[in-house]
LTA synthase family protein
Amino acid sequence: MGFTTLLVVLFWLKTLVAYFVDFKLGLSDPFQFLIVLLNPIATTVLLFGLALYLKRARFFYPFIFLIDILNSLLLYINVIYFREFTDFMTVSTMLGYSKVDQGLSGSSLALTSPHDILYWLDLVIVIVLMLTRRIYIDPRPVNKRVALAVTSAGLLAFSVNLTLGEMDRPQLLTRTFDRTYVVKYLGLDAFTVYDGIKSGHTSELRSHAKKSELSGILKYIHGNYAAPDKNLYGVAKKKNVIIIHLESFQQFLINKKINGQEVTPFLNKLYKSKSTYSFDNFFHEVGQGKTSDAETMLETGTYGLSQGSLFTQLGNDNTFQAAPAIFDQAGYTTAVFHGNVGSFWNRNNTYKNLGYQYFFDASYYDTSGDKSLGYGLKDKLLFNDSVKYLQHLQQPFYVKYLTVSNHFPFSLDSEDSTFKTPNTGDKTVDNYFKTANYLDQSIKEFYHYLDKSGLAKNSLVMIYGDHYGISNSSNKSLAKLLGVDPDDWNDYDNAQLQRVPLMFNMPGYKKGKIEHTYGGEVDVLPTLLHLMGMNSKKYLQFGTDMFSKEHNQVVAFRNRDWESPGYTSVDGTIYSNKTQQEIHPTGKLKAKIDKMQAHVNEGLSLSDSLNTKNLLRFYHPKGFTAVDPSDYNYSDGLQKSEKLEKKLGLKSTSLFSRNGDKSTQGLYKTDAPELNHKETDSNRIKITNQDDTSGK
Ligand code: GP9
Ligand code: MN
């Protein structure tokens, strides 16, 4: 009993370290403080108390250690996860973890902190004390009645906890759209169990879903439809679409100077060019799925999930009516270029369901030695090394480049940059400008090639930032650089920083400008389709064309906060954008705000039900052929495109064919120092291609 108590107390203490040092639980009053102090006790007593049922010492000790180690591991991975995502790890994230762990190894190391030793120290000390016999192994079994009493005490403590929680936050468990609440009131273990039950429930949901559930969704989407602006509909008809995904790139980088030097001079030029429609009130809307959420929204016009990543959870078997398939059926070739391993975010499977014909992942590039960083091939090399694949694709094409160098922890090798970073005292913030500058240079080099190869004049280049790079916990260090007093920094400011760039660049076009319309990632697909002269009406998309006069400017964040031209809502608090102050709306204004909130809630939950219940399998838009993922194999992209070139002969529209069957690689100019590095055996990422069964 004494030993169990000791372990329980030690575990309780380190949970408190996590609560008060690492997790931001948002404790607003002494009552909540009390609940947080108590909540680890109940579940720890319940779990550790299980060992008391084992009568023999040689079972009891290993078992209680096992529980302690597993529980410490759960606590610790949540600490690490929280530092990057400001959120807790769901069971589905954990189950999908193997799909995303590549490369995380690099940054999880950077996410550790010296005090992390506290999460393991107790176990080490207890083991040392046992080995040195300061703590004796006690062979006397605990009476079964005592074990039962401990369990009952644990259960009682838990119900007290739940009651206190419900008192402070009614409907705690029924409304859980915010994981922090559950952890705050019930603790991490309870959250994990609760979440596990919920995931089981989702798979149940899918098997019972019916076609009739589509009707509410259809009603919402038809009611929201925004007809295209006639002047812009089809301006990019038949052009190639080149999408450049700017990793972790926020809008504040545009036109930003550090030590008098522009961070992204090339993008700045594109941003204000007459050949570009740029948006300065465009927001990312990602949740835990980060990059993959951005991809979900841009490719499908539906939101990511409220927890975890849609790609990893549903990407294997969901039905989509997504951009790659829509473009494919309009005669386009579709491809993704990405220098990370294909299984990251489960892309290798999800892309097949989206209808991508080609996926050039890390296995297509030399990523050895210094050529890659934790998340894959450096951007300058990605663009350069993709030419040999791009030039064989039939035009028109719809292609996407997923960059990676500007990713947390924002490290580069010294030979890659001479950019002078600021000095905020926060390394993450400082280095962010350097990697953003590197990304800018890589795009400049790519554009040079687009010009030289002639691609520029028949392409629409869409450039966007996927999500924040600087997380809310570092925003205070950033504040100074943005000319704001860090002490005045608040939730309103955090929300404003979720702006990311969105540009539609059509080289040669003259009527571009900077648009101030508010919009988010879910709005991109209908906007793009209309520019291409493609009808979006028959598809179930939750956003609307941002160029349309009927476009709804309320932007939903994944946690149900929202942004609009006049007001910002964070955690139920409303701010006026004009005064940047908190307001307490009444009367007409309150009704208006409530309506905006209801719109946000409805859109998110209908999108969730569409995706989690896989309702698109019941929906058949006219003229759209369902995607068959088994049509695709991503291991022989080059051979496949070359074969097609030969078959088409004179009709081939690939850049290579149009260039008299000569490579265009010579037109590419890059100053990437790694170009001269020999291929080595060392690699910062692990390379696999699951479609490659050749055994090589
Ligand atoms: C990895 C890259 C990063 O392949 O897309 O994803 P993120 O960590 O930003 O979600
Ligand atoms: Mn990303």
